[in-house]
Amino acid sequence: MTASSQSGFDFPHAFAVVTSERATTPRTGPSSGCAVGTQPLGTQSGSAQPATQPACTHPRGSQLISTRSISGQPGSAQPVTQPACTHPRGSQLISTRSISGQPGSTQPVTQPGGTSTPPTRHPRAATGASSSYRILHTVGDNDARFPLASVTKLLSAWAVLTAVEHGLLTLDDAAGPPNSTVRHLLAHASGLPAERGEPIAPPGQRRIYSNYGFELLGDYTATRVGESFQEWIEESVLLPLGMADTDVDGSPAHSGISTVSDLALFAVELLHPTLISPELLAAAATVQFPGLAGILPGYGRQQSNDWGLGVEIRDHKQPHWTGDSFSPRTFGHFGQSGSFLWVDPIADDGAGRAGIFLGAERFGAAHVAGWPALTNAMRAWQP
Predict the structure, then answer these.
(1) Model pTM greater than 0.85?
(2) Residue 159 in 3-state DSSP?
(3) Cβ neighbours of residue 56 under 8 Å, at least 6 residues apart?
């Protein structure tokens, strides 16, 4: 198979291959583009350093925000004196742009089974400066809206990490079942079952993929940011990146609806972040609680079912939905709606490459059989 073919799938679908250049612009805040500045976050063994310029506030006005390291150790509180960020929701109408930068048309959501949901247009524009990027190859309608299922978890995890970036919570805050933390919930290591229920293992002992864990993570984040998780993901991720055709109106685990065009913007953020620090990205893409065994949904038990902070890490898993050409550092997510987003940070001489696939048929045998070859072709594509 080559990426230039129609992928071999006989249902409505779209995909794109994206490459990126490194970001050179400052990170932005959770609403109207306030500069996050150089408020650093250490690695898990690092210590917090004082902010070198005022940090962007949560859009509730000026307040004290504690600078914390990724390890969750308290830092020194810094007064924030800059004007509050105001959320521009509803303030203007902003046209959606397709991946190519040309005006895109609003499309209904294509659901498995052929039904469609009316589109939602949000008054969003990109307030953060993203890395420049190139679309190497596309197939299908990249402005068609599809359900994301568990690819939603990538967006939700990023919203949690922006709250960490702004000092509103830490990775080691207690959250979920007893002795569990935000870090455990992001890494599917809290011991919670897939759906609502009591823990089935102590935290940090098994990799148990848990939608319920992400539900509790959304609830906890909402208490710390002072608004619903759905509002926070809008302000902290979708608005700054200009993801105008994306909605996460329900579950943080699986309610997302988006387009290949929007996810291309998010993929570049995963490669070269503008909303969180490079240090926090490095932590997100590093295995949390190494060596935990568990089941990779759809692909069976993995002796080392590696996971980062909300992202699945490929490492040496077999079988896997990405092909055998991918580096162990590849990370991303796939969803039961028949969707995936992967990024390989060492591809294209270190600039990184990403692949997005959305389709109208739920994940099944055709995806298990076809995705490894398709992803290999996407990673190898040369214009």
Answers:
(1) no
(2) helix
(3) 28, 29, 30, 34, 35, 36, 37, 80, 82, 85, 166
